[in-house]
Amino acid sequence: MKLSAVVQSLKPSATIAAAAQAKALKSQGITVYDFTLGEPDFNTPEHIQAAAIAAMKAGHTHYTPSGGIPELKKAVCSLYERDYGLKFQPNQVLISNGAKHSLHNVITSLCGAGDEVIIPAPYWVSYSALVELAGAIPVIVETSEADGFRMSAQQFDSAITSRTRLLLLNSPSNPTGATYSREQLEGLAEVARRRDVLVCSDEIYEKLLYTNEPAHCFAVLLGGAAAERTIIVSGVSKAYAMTGWRIGWTIAPAVLTSAMDNLQSQETSNPCSISQYASLAALTGPQDCVEAMRMEFARRREYVLGRLHAMRGVTLADPGGAFYAFFNVSHYFSRPLGKGTKVSNATEFCAALLEESHVALVSGDAFGAPGYVRLSFASDLDNLRMGLDRIEKFLNVD
Ligand code: PMP
Ligand code: GLU
What we know:
The chain is an alpha/beta fold. The protein is built from 13 helices and 13 strands. The radius of gyration is 21 Å and the shape is globular.
């Protein structure tokens, strides 16, 4: 069968592929220490589950408006007013099938053939794929571990051309956990204003922070003036352990929101009605579950960082947010690992680690960061302890 050119050139999501590989081994009865997928290991809090059941019983099992139910849009507006003092209108909010879908809506609605989208590397696997799917060109800006994997205003400025349409920014970042300071963000916002570039700010990990600095919504920058050229992407997946419910949102100028709503109405109709009511309960109900999960992630982060820093040759920039440790293993390339295996890149490293030690990580190659691997610490401490023991043994650290 002849497939379309666009689909032929599309690679599967590397994070999802790595998780599937680990699952395939597990299905053979093998114990696998699986640190691939970036999703909270907690179950969705009880009161949110109860709201979903109540929604079904109340008959909310039909189509909803394509862009989401008005109550949820209002709740999203209230959230940003509470957390950031930002006043948005419901016609600026679009509810979608997860933040990944939100990103697709943004990129497809703004970019076409020949347009350039700036993406700081390391970047989340789907960014470049979604840009290419729209026929646009990802322009990758390398950042370094020494700079905490943050793109400077100068780097941003230098990457802009007359074809630049959009910056895809992600703080806290997947895969590095890097968080930008307010000052650094102000610098980027200033460049975006001066060079007339739109910013899509993916803030899906905004509630998972481990530094003393509070979360910064990109739209608050430049005294609030940044909002005009900002598209916020976020959702319930990470903060409320709701990855399977598939609810994300964008907040954007109303004209773009309306265009994205049209696109969504043709592509998917509305996001799941029941998930929307569950998300409404998440946003309007008690928030202590968010902090309880964050504290547990913080405990695991401490443990993981302690272990990794103790492994000679391993280097990393400590993550300020999200639930990933992104560490450099290139010191171990061409040295005997495990039972004597030699590898020459991060992809081979992950394959050998999985095969010999049954520990699953994601290769940095997929994130535009050769030499690195990503460990998701959204896994319980016992698992992390045993997995890290195995990694240490595999490295033959002396
Ligand atoms: N953005 C980033 C940076 C992510 O890591 C993810 C992965 N979950 C998403 C967006 C997509 O989130 P969702 O599961 O809500 O589609
Ligand atoms: N975002 C998560 C990750 O990076 C989930 C998988 C995906 O959607 O790529 O692992």
